Automatic annotation (TrEMBL):
Originating gene: cheB
Organism of provenance: Oceanococcus atlanticus
Residue span, CheB-type methylesterase domain: 155-347
PANTHER family recorded: PROTEIN-GLUTAMATE METHYLESTERASE/PROTEIN-GLUTAMINE GLUTAMINASE, PROTEIN-GLUTAMATE METHYLESTERASE_PROTEIN-GLUTAMINE GLUTAMINASE
Source species taxonomy: Bacteria, Pseudomonadati, Pseudomonadota, Gammaproteobacteria, Chromatiales
Domain notes for this protein: Contains a C-terminal catalytic domain, and an N-terminal region which modulates catalytic activity.
Protein name (database record): Protein-glutamate methylesterase/protein-glutamine glutaminase
Subcellular location(s) per record: Cytoplasm
Amino acid sequence: MSRPIRVLIVDDSALVRQLLTELLTQDPQIEVVGTAQDPFVAREKIKDLSPDVLTLDVEMPRMDGLKFLENLMRLRPMPVIMVSSLTQQGATTTLSALALGAVDFVAKPTLGVAQGLESSAAELIEKVKIAAISRPRMASDAPPVQAPAAAQIRYETTDRLIAIGASTGGTEAVREVLAHVSADSPAIVIAQHIPEAFSASFAERLNKASALAVCQASDGQEIRPGHAYVAPGDDHLEVARSGARWYCRLNKAEPVNRHRPSVDVLFRSVAANCGANACGVLLTGMGDDGARGLKQMRDEGAFTLIQDEASSVVWGMPGAAHRLDAACQQASLAEVPGLLGEFARQGSRLKHNCR
């Protein structure tokens, strides 16, 4: 090209936007014309700046990168380089991004971001230059087998979520689990059948017993690793998604299975919004609340776990889930924290070890 390659950087991390800008502008043939923290800002900057190449993250608020890429390639095809901790060669996310029209990818390290990106500077610069002279795949160029719509892609993120449901005997069972979970655990959301007057005190008691920061959930609260969120005693707790971020949503809809909060309500929302990034745990309790929701989670690719009969105060809810084939695995209460640690390390791959 007779002029510098104009690049727009799209990433929700201010640090990464700064690092990529510094690395790319080391090359006189590249000009970073702008940055955007999410796809909605990027959309406007594409209109205003007409970049030649886009670098795009996957995990972003409001709209994830795959959905944005799908929209971009349909409405305004242009060369895109994925720069994400998710885009490891051969991974589902990478293949999905390439199928949707991305030219190439550069892996962003999850630890030591600055050093990792600096070591990839030459690779990134080369790929940007190649992308600039590539021909974006137009809609008419699409292969016979279409890439799945981004909204339907169950890709695994670096953030994971654990959802726990319990009833009779559950206040002590949940406390025992959280007492043995590490401070860097994935976020945990909890639906425990408990009267409204007791749920705040229950959350405080869990907070004192656990290395996690435990609180009673509030509506609109962002769900973050190292934290646990307890459903208030007279509200359904649901997990909502905005882009690749999760939030707590509370509502006073009718009781489900005679309960509010209902474990089924929580588990179904996790199945719909977290898919294979989630782990569902159904502990001791009377009745069958949570069994169908746990089955839905398993069907969506989550790792699902039930407390065994021997260690349960009442094996009603876990037993109902067992009869529905909703659980990847049964475990004693003492074994549950260790399995959650394995989920934190392995993610949905753990479900392949089901027994």
